[in-house]
Amino acid sequence: MIILLKKNANQTQIExxxxxxxxxxVQLNVSVGQSHTIIGLLGxxxxxxxxxxxxxxxxxxxxxxxxxxxxxxxxxxxxxTIIELENGVKIGGGNxxxxxxxxxxxxxxxxxxVAQAVKAAGATILRGGAFKPRxxxxxxxxLGAEGLRLLSKAKKETGLPIxxxxxxxxxxxxxxxxxxxxxxxRNMQNFELLKQLGKINKPVLLKRGLANTLQELLTxxxxxxxxxxxxxxxxxxxxxTFETRTRNTLDLSAVPVLHRIxxxxxxxxxxHATGVAKLxxxxxxxxxxxxxxxxxxxxxxxxxxxxxxGAQSLTPEDFAEMARRVKAILPYSMR
Length: 335
Ligand code: PEP
Ligand code: MN
What we know:
The chain is of the alpha/beta class. About 30% of the residues lie in helices and about 15% in strands.
């Protein structure tokens, strides 16, 4: 349930209302937006009398929320969430960023070379997988803890914040220096993992599952937020359809749809969506135009010999050209 307060609601009356709601056993989520204050009610609202609330002088309207996601819901929190990293880089609410780097961290020279190249082209966050979710148990599984150490080294060398995937909550202690934790498509509904992320104070990038709806994506984001960690971004990375010419099908309408129903930043991954390097720049441009808050793009200094996802990895030169075009169309973005 959400209670929209009148613009001129005074603070004493608001406090009084909050106390009386709390005494009914519901949890409150108060969002002070640019135009209105919204009080979101979480938990069992059966004792809350809607007619009584509507009759209060400071209440503009009361609505029941049908969707199973509340904290992630735009109706609960009208202003865009802005994720701010330790070095001041912001994502969301008009702040657009390019995240780039290899699928997997392979060697020190590889990650540092790629980090320097993507930074020079305008990327502000470095990606690189250390723990890799591979379909085959015989495929390269990532360097693990050593990969995280190399990412930290690249962060130190370039000043770029880092994002990498967490697959097992038991590894969390290794992620102290990581700026954004990625939860991959295959773990979007690993609810125990999501609950663990609710307990930490670090931004999370949650990728849409291969066959999940946007509502399910937001309900998974809600798992993290319900635990107390509200720094969540959601990422469309292509879904599985009957089409086989691309690795997945990029659902670009997810961008404007998500922006309507959630305040969380929306990120697009054109690399896993298409699986083909040549298709990445056009989709990255389209994603920018339709209002994505960030792009996450795979870049490798030697795609032909990459240990993972070489076919969809851009060379640093191709990334620089793509970044130039992205920056050119950014002022026309529908955001
Ligand atoms: C990745 O980003 O390297 C990755 C494995 O992505 P996804 O979970 O979207 O497949
Ligand atoms: Mn990959």
